[in-house]
Every structure is written in C-alpha cells, then in structure tokens.
Amino acid sequence: MLSPERRTSMAERRPSFANFSGNSNHIDTLMVPHLAGIEDPLPETTPEKVDVLIAGTGLVESVLAAALAWQGSNVLHVDSNDYYGDSAATLTVDQIKNWVNRIHNSKNESEPYKNAKLYISSSNIGPDCKYASRDFGIDLSPKILFAKSDLLSILVKSRVHQYLEFQSLSTFHTYENDSFEKLTNTKQDIFTDQNLTLMTKRNLMKFLKFVLNWEKMPEIWQPYADKSITDFLFNKFKLEKPQVFELVFSIGLCSNMDTKVPLALNRIRRYLVSYDVYGPFPVLYSKYGGAGEVSQGFCRSAAVAGATYKLNEKLYSYNPTTQVATFTDGSKVTVTEKIIMSPTQAPEGNKHVPEQKYEVNRMVCLVEKDCKEWFSEDESAAVVVFPPGSLKSGNKHVVQTLIMGSGSECCPQGTSIWYLSTTESGVRAEMDLDAALEALEISIIRESSEEITNDNDIVQISDDGRPIINSVRLGQSFKEYVPRESVQHLMKLSYTQLTSTPPFDVVNPALFDNDELNNRANSVNKFIPNASDNGIIYTAMPSSEISYDEVVTAAKVLYEKIVGSDDDFFDVDFEDDDNDAMPTGASVNGVINYENAIEDDEEDIQMGEDDSNEFVGEMEI
Amino acid sequence: MSNPITSIKLVLLGEAAVGKSSIVLRFVSNDFSENKEPTIGAAFLTQRVNINDHTVKFEIWDTAGQERFASLAPMYYRNAQAALVVYDVTKPQSFIKARHWVKELHEQASKNIIIALVGNKIDILEDNENERKVAREEAEKLAEEEGLLFFETSAKTGTNISEVFLGIGEKIPLKGLEDEHNNNGLNVTEDQRINLANTANASENASACSC
C-alpha cells in the first residue's frame, strides 16, 4: 500500500460517526451508500481515479472487491464478459455456446481454458422446443459450501447470505464394485450399519474421535506425517478398504491415494464438524447456480459499499509509471494502488500471467432424468465419488461428481445436471470422465426402472418391519441387468481448465508477487519491456477443489497486499437491521467449536489402549 | 402478532436521478426532509405495511448503481414479486428508458411480477405545469398495454408514495390465503431454504440427542 495510513472504513464514515467524533460540519456524502445519497446521483461516467482496479468478477475477485469497498477503498470492478462470475459464472445454454466459441477463437497465449467440446440437442433446447436455453444455469466451477467454513462466516458477516438461498446436501455416494454405497457418515449410521463388524465399528469410532482434535495428538500422526492418509488409516487405525475409501474420498474429498496425512486429516475433519451445524447435513449449495450466485452477491455488496461496476470492459494495457490503465474502448482510469486481475482477463501482449501447470478436466451433462433416486428426501443434490481404481478405465485419480436436480432451480423438472471433474490430465482424463459418465448412466437407469422395486433381494426389511431402501440394491444382483432405455443427453460439455494451484490445494501467496514495480530497484527483472501487464497482480484460476475453501484464503492474501494487513478484512460493524441480528451460533470469529460435531461419549478413548467390550455396548442408540 | 406476514421482494428500476432511492426512503422513513440515515450494510431496506388483516413485509432492493453501465446482475430480478419502474415526469428520456425496463422485466423476471410504473417529481409541476414533458395519458396508455399499475408521485412532498406500495401490496397473493388453497409448491420451497444466520436450532437438537 502506498499510503501507510489506514483508510477510514465505511462504518467510520457514517454521518453519526462523524458527528460523534465532533466533525459534524463535514460529512462526505459520496461515501455513504447510494440510498443515502439521495441528493447526489451517481456520475454517469466511470471514475477517473480509483484506489484499486479489479478485472474479472470471479469468486476471489468479488470477495476481494466487497472486502475492499467496505474497508473504504475506491474500487472499479470490471469484467470483459457481459455477465458476472467469470471463471465462476453460471451460464445459460446459449451463453455456454458463446463461451465455447470464445475459447476456440481466443488469441490469448495464456488462455486458461482449452479442449472445449460441446454437444447440444437442438431438437430439445431452443426456441419452440421443450426447454429454453435459460431454463438451465450451468456452473463453470461447481462448488459446495461446508456448514463450518471461512466463506460461510464471511457470507453471514457481510450479510451477503441475504441475497442468496441455500439448500442442504446430505448424500455422498462412494462408487465401489459397480455400485453406489451411501456414505456411513454419522455415528448413528455406523452403529446401525449391519455390514460393519464390531471391530470395524470400534476402530472407526476411535478414528472419528481422534480426527476432531488430531493436532493435539502428534504422537499418533507424526510418525506418518510424510506418509499417505490411506497408509495411515490402514496401518494405524486398522480400518478396512471400504471405510478408508469413504473417509479419504467421500468425507475428505481427496484427489488420490497419496494425499498426505495432515492435509487429509484437516479435510476429513472439515466434513465432520460441518455436520449438524444447520441440520443433519454437512454441506449446502446456493440455489439458481452455485459460485455464479455467490460472486454476484459479493459484487452487489461491493456496489452497495460504493464500488463501480462495468461489464463488457477489457483492459488494453497498464502503464505502471503513469499509473494509467487503458481499456479497449479507449477509456482510461488512474489506479493509485493496485490492479488485480484474473488470468481470463489478461490483455493481449501480456507477459506476466503465472504458469498454469495443473489441469482440471471437467464434463457437464444436462440429462433428461430427475435423478431423485440419488437424493435424500426433500433434497435436490448429491455428490458421487469414484475412488481410484473403481472405474473401467483404471482411474488413478478420483472422479468427483456433483448432481443437481430441478429443486436447485438450475434446471427444469424432469432433468438434472451432472458435473464431473478430475485432476487427471490429457487422454487419461477423458477416459476416466467417460467411464464415470457411463457408470452414472447405468446406475440411474437401473435405479429408476420400475421392476426393481419388486425384487425381494433389493428391498430389505428392517427389524420393525420398515423396508430399508438404500443404495446397496444397486449391487451385485444387477450386474447382469441390461439397460433397455438410454439416458437422454440434452447437452454435453467437456473442457480443460488450467490453474496454477495444485489439485485440492489452496493458493500459494508467492503467486501474487508480480507487483515488485513499486520497488523496482530490487526487481528489475520483473519489468518486461513492451508487456501490456507490467505491475498487474494476477489471481489464481479456481483449483479442482469442490468446496469454497480456497476462496477466502486467496482473497485475504490479496487484501493484505493492498491494505497492508488483513486485520480488518470484513470487519464491518453493521447496525441491526430489522430482526436480523448477528447470529450467536455461527463461527463468525473464526473460533470453531468442534464439540457438537460428534456427540461426546462419556469416556475418553485412549489411543492404543485395548478398549473393553463395554465401550461397544455403550454405543447403543 | 398473529398476523400472517408475506414477504415481497421489490426491485427498483429507472434511469439515474429519477428519484428511485428517494421514493423508497420516503416510504421507509415517511419523512423526506429529515435526513434519516439508512442502515449501513443493509442487504436491502425493509418496511412492513398492514393491509387488512395481513402484514406485508417489503424487501426493497436498490440497484446500488449497478444499472449505470448495463451491469445489473440476474440476481437482482430473480424472484422479484414486484418492481417499481420509475421515470421523471420532466425528462422524456427517462420515460423512454422506463419502456426499456418494462420490456426487460417481461423478459428477465418471473411471469407474474407486479410492475408499477411511477412518474416521479410532480412537485415541480405545481409551480409550472409547462415543466411536464411526459403526458399523463401517454404513461397511462403504456400502463394499460403492459398491465402495469400507474402512479404519479412526489418523493419530495410524499404525494402518492404510500399509495404505490399499498397498491402493490393489495395485488400480491397473501400467504394465509395461499395456505388455505393448499399451495404446496411454494411452501416446500420455503421450508427447504436454510437461514445461515440461524444455527441455534440445529445445535440444540444436536445436544438434545444424547445418543
């Protein structure tokens, strides 16, 4: 930051605050949100001078814009697209068409998307067809939100959650031996699961207790710190393959067998502590499109705090000496502090876009099946994980699938959207995605077929006479079942997205070190003559991470670069508005209470100690 | 207390400086001259109105300036049950823009959205009727063609402001009545929605379950 003085925040600039500080005759009305500025209509031209220019309305950029605007920075936020969201956008079918065309015609050497292939069933989607283009909202980066996560805290704190509608997602399927096993993720499930032996149940409970406070027990995990999580679970906790795979790939949502122990333990805990925060489910998603909606919400919040928005605006070049940024339409703005830009928005002649060496391969299918068989009652989404080695293709990496039904309002009744992704690259990635798609198709046809409910082998009867219908019925007995119908694809899209962030990791702060121009004496190398983007800080493209976890981390690092410290990141003291007071239960301070994640048993389990059978007995529900 | 409450999302549209925010502020504070400070950080302004035995809670979304460079997000229109399309009776250009917004709403917003066309700043006409540049008849014609409510208002004097919102409130299907007619679809959606600001219930349930 050029000026060492901290800017006054929005809250401090409120008239009442000014009065309070005895400065009543000078009220900077321009700084008060627009509703207050009734005598000061906003200018019709973009500002001539701003503190920060942000290009790209993706998630990280939007969260950053809102944080800066509420902190008091003067922000101009632009996007070269005619829609919000950029790499996180939620698009209609027609917009997807244009997006694919744009990628094919891109002259940007650092274009972060490639290999885009699109099929649209033109007899089904279009004018005078059964479905309209805008009946669908397709996410370029589908995301789920853990109920205990930093983004959720920020959503509540910033009140952006009031712009959004969230729904629950409780079903995580693990694909194994040609069938979907529904996740055994609650204590109750573990006790009632008849497929688990007592020993397994006990070992599983031991692990679940350990993982909630794993950092405090280094004696258990330290010897395995450099080992893989699968190794750790097999050898230290004596768990069996199905449980290990569930823990690592469905609960932990890890990308492969080799995920290191500490990282994996954090990911497993993330799921467990999120359970029962809002109800019996660990994650949520926003209706009408995930990441695209969330970024729109933060952009709106930034606008309320005074940021200026302009779509269809692309940077042509930036001159760090004069601090003037020029757009392709000829307009100019002086940027006194920083330019933050998504690689998708890089001007022609750019030389500073960080190397994007990791691939995320994605496939999106619009399918004419409601897929309610995969959802819990009253829910409209599910996650299906294909662990390594579970597919015909002999996949080495996980294929993660997010299924969205019509209740998410992202697609019409009777249809669903399947999002598949893998961190595998090249031809292997295509083979894995195709194999996963085929497995999904076969499963949904089996499950939605009428005859199946008549088969006595499939519907199990519980002790109290209730039929238990679960995914086990997809198993062996249907291996020979030949599907008679096929799944109608309304649209099929596949593409490769490049990113500088390793799979399932968060962004590395060193990525943002392209701003040494403020300090040019030390870093002459950084200045490349004739580059159009000297002095610009690039954000990271989304990683393959299916949760929002990387977003706040990245936005905070950038915020600190601009403001000097992240102390007041969304430190906004909002007045109470209507009855919507701040919640007391949410972890808004970042202090996470793990207590109610898994209800405590009376006795503490000593690791390595031989527990008596009594323990198992006490676990009765 | 026992009144059923119906929440209505209402969005504002119109050219800059026609008085969109002033209309809302007048309605919310019911006082134009006293510079009532809006709630800092409010996602939207809210105001409750009693209509017969019902309470209607307006959630009023301001454009926050995002309309200036044609950069309103789809989120803005989404699920809006009502919209005010505002123009300035002394500025013909603003009426042309109003036509544009009505068209936009018909394309983007939900089908049964209630739209009120509002010609603001009629206080200027009191001194000099020659200032009028948009004929009342012309606006009435548009309202009739497009099925809009129509009002001429002054946010400055308060003329007709509450009538605009009461007029919308009366046209909105009220929640209690919907329940009686067993309108399931809507209710289910409401139930599935999770309020992120409310974790208390879930935690209590969790601790009560001592399994």
Automatic annotation (TrEMBL), chain A:
One of its GO terms (cellular component) is nucleus. Gene3D superfamilies: FAD/NAD(P)-binding domain, Guanine Nucleotide Dissociation Inhibitor, domain 1, Guanine Nucleotide Dissociation Inhibitor, domain 2. InterPro entries: FAD/NAD-bd_sf, GDP_dissociation_inhibitor, Mrs6. GO terms for biological process: small GTPase-mediated signal transduction; vesicle-mediated transport. GO terms for molecular function: GDP-dissociation inhibitor activity. SUPFAM superfamilies: FAD-linked reductases, C-terminal domain, FAD/NAD(P)-binding domain. It comes from the Eukaryota. Residues 1-22 are annotated as: Disordered. Residues 1-15 have a biased composition (Basic and acidic residues). Pfam families: GDI (PF00996). Substrate-binding subunit (component A) of the Rab geranylgeranyltransferase (GGTase) complex. Binds unprenylated Rab proteins and presents the substrate peptide to the catalytic component B. The component A is thought to be regenerated by transferring its prenylated Rab back to the donor membrane. Belongs to the Rab GDI family. This is Rab proteins geranylgeranyltransferase component A. It comes from Maudiozyma exigua.
From TrEMBL, chain B:
It holds the Pfam family Ras. The keyword Transmembrane helix does not apply. Keywords: Nucleotide-binding. GO terms for molecular function: GTP binding; GTPase activity. The keyword Nucleotide-binding applies. CDD domains: Rab5_related. InterPro entries: P-loop_NTPase, Small_GTP-bd, Small_GTPase. NCBIfam families: small_GTP. This is Vacuolar protein sorting-associated protein 21.
